[in-house]
Amino acid sequence: MCVPKIEHIVFANNIVPSFHSNTSAKNLILPKLKKFVLMEFNENFNLELFFDFIKKHKNTEFEVVIKKQEYSPEFTKQLQIQLDNLIKQWSSKYEPISFTFPNQTQDSSVALAKLYDQYVKRKFKPGEHLAYYDY
User: Fold this and answer.
1) What are phi and psi of 98, to 5 degrees?
2) Torsion of CA 18, 83, 53, 11, to 10 degrees
3) C-alpha 5: how far from its chain's center?
4) Is the Cβ–Cβ distance between 47 and 79 less than 8 Å?
């Protein structure tokens, strides 16, 4: 399913769309999507589908911020595994996602920052960007 004109999506306070089937979610393509913001989701959220969606939309700027939601240890573990796998597969050709959640490992936070640094170095010539972080 292609939705060609949507450029920005923001979901907040556990308001996240559901799909009639996993097939419709897996086949959702938003070719013009520039920014996707997700703030808070509960443990019913389908992590696998969401991370597949991210992989299909690498040219999109993703910002995922979880501050209030407390997850079970098992859900936190699955979330961390999905994020770690995404980080390992991410190419510096694309802007990396911004992703924070309670009990996220320091390693993944640092890895995301390094990916962003690699992306900036690749995209801009020295002196063209405002921020540079050395790890």
Assistant:
1) -100, 120
2) 50
3) 21
4) yes
Residue 4 burial (CB count, 10 A) = 9
Six-digit token string for 79: 């979330």
* 77-98 tens-digit pLDDT: 999 999 999 999 999 889 999 9
Q: 22-67 pLDDT, tens per residue? A: 666 677 888 899 999 999 888 988 899 899 999 999 999 999 999 8
Please state the pTM of the whole predicted model.
Answer: 0.81
Q: For residues 63 and 98, is the Cβ–Cβ distance under 8 A?
A: yes
The strand ranges marked E within the chain are: 8-12, 35-39, 61-65, 98-100
Q: Which residue, among 25, 23, 20, 31, has the nearest Cα to 51 in the 3D structure?
A: 25
d(CA 40, CA 21): 22
Say what the pLDDT of residue 130 is.
55
Cα torsion 5, 7, 10, 15 to 10°: value is 20
Cα dihedral 101, 54, 20, 77 sign: negative
